[in-house]
């Protein structure tokens, strides 16, 4: 009984602190779009260069996902997140000090490296401290809280940066990261019990339960952590081979590449500038419209588990989310010729945010269809795809804007991503409902 209480306390404290840190990830990811006009006044850049600046965060995030997955599985989340938050703080300070494009690029790259460790660590905590049957619900809560960072990075950041200056905002965020680093040392614990202690029995019981519900019968799923530490390079080869050769991994990767990548592209940079240019609005008004997407995020995150129950599976829920999202962008791009009535945009952005939250089911699916001991690698590979997709889409929109006289033509990039997201859901194999 005492062990169970301790396990519960450590699991929830670890998860809670990392989820608070995850709020800052969303803030940093979407912040450039809200300060773009002030930024370009002090550091001259065109649309392509601005897109590349935003993508620096995504490059680092994508580059780090597989190393992070390995490090999470090997050294644990506590040390990794402490170091990650320190790097995030350094990058945030450097961005506030930047007066050249090169320094701005470097600072955003550092922020991407530092913040890249958090979401994979959260998934590792969920997979090791909690039953796998709660993975989707916890992922929904993670997105629910994390998306408050998206909300802060849009209308509030636009207002605060105009009042106090965009540089001061990033100095303050550096201080927040330092405080969070100390919280990680205090309250985050890795689930690495010694052989023979009560946790070993608990983990074995949980593993057997996963096997029963997932119909996964491989012996490695039943085994508890290995008695001998596998050499690093062997572990790397085995984990990557296991995850990348699994055909059920790839629909989840494509989902994050296209479906989630479109939201990161739109909200991370181009949403506010596109609405401003197409309709001739001021930045604050445009930010207010785009903010409705974060309301959709916040409402949609806790509803994901309900979608799964009502539609009787992860795949049907993702098909519904990606299919309705595709119809939304067909209306915006084709039917409305890229210029829907301006009063509809709050509703459109809200629906976009609501539907995009079904993407978190891809993490539940990729965890269920891969070995539990490689859960860090599996979620890291999947998460990496979002930032590759976001980088490509951001640069593509920049090219479209620089070489086309039609600003609304940029919506075709989002429509293409929406189409790929729907195809990914069609290709996905359903995981057992019990997982």
UniProtKB/TrEMBL annotation:
<dbReference type="InterPro" id="IPR036259">
    <property type="entry name" value="MFS_trans_sf"/>
</dbReference>
<feature type="transmembrane region" description="Helical">
    <location>
        <begin position="342"/>
        <end position="362"/>
    </location>
</feature>
<feature type="transmembrane region" description="Helical">
    <location>
        <begin position="79"/>
        <end position="97"/>
    </location>
</feature>
<keyword id="KW-0472">Membrane</keyword>
<dbReference type="InterPro" id="IPR020846">
    <property type="entry name" value="MFS_dom"/>
</dbReference>
<dbReference type="GO" id="GO:0035435">
    <property type="term" value="P:phosphate ion transmembrane transport"/>
</dbReference>
<feature type="transmembrane region" description="Helical">
    <location>
        <begin position="50"/>
        <end position="72"/>
    </location>
</feature>
<feature type="transmembrane region" description="Helical">
    <location>
        <begin position="103"/>
        <end position="123"/>
    </location>
</feature>
<feature type="transmembrane region" description="Helical">
    <location>
        <begin position="409"/>
        <end position="428"/>
    </location>
</feature>
<feature type="transmembrane region" description="Helical">
    <location>
        <begin position="374"/>
        <end position="397"/>
    </location>
</feature>
<feature type="transmembrane region" description="Helical">
    <location>
        <begin position="169"/>
        <end position="188"/>
    </location>
</feature>
<feature type="transmembrane region" description="Helical">
    <location>
        <begin position="12"/>
        <end position="30"/>
    </location>
</feature>
<feature type="transmembrane region" description="Helical">
    <location>
        <begin position="253"/>
        <end position="275"/>
    </location>
</feature>
<keyword id="KW-1133">Transmembrane helix</keyword>
<dbReference type="GO" id="GO:0061513">
    <property type="term" value="F:glucose 6-phosphate:phosphate antiporter activity"/>
</dbReference>
<keyword id="KW-0813">Transport</keyword>
<feature type="domain" description="Major facilitator superfamily (MFS) profile">
    <location>
        <begin position="14"/>
        <end position="433"/>
    </location>
</feature>
<protein>
    <submittedName>
        <fullName>Sugar phosphate permease</fullName>
    </submittedName>
</protein>
<dbReference type="Pfam" id="PF07690">
    <property type="entry name" value="MFS_1"/>
</dbReference>
<feature type="transmembrane region" description="Helical">
    <location>
        <begin position="135"/>
        <end position="157"/>
    </location>
</feature>
<dbReference type="InterPro" id="IPR051337">
    <property type="entry name" value="OPA_Antiporter"/>
</dbReference>
<feature type="transmembrane region" description="Helical">
    <location>
        <begin position="287"/>
        <end position="310"/>
    </location>
</feature>
<dbReference type="GO" id="GO:0005886">
    <property type="term" value="C:plasma membrane"/>
</dbReference>
<feature type="transmembrane region" description="Helical">
    <location>
        <begin position="317"/>
        <end position="336"/>
    </location>
</feature>
<keyword id="KW-0812">Transmembrane</keyword>
<dbReference type="InterPro" id="IPR011701">
    <property type="entry name" value="MFS"/>
</dbReference>
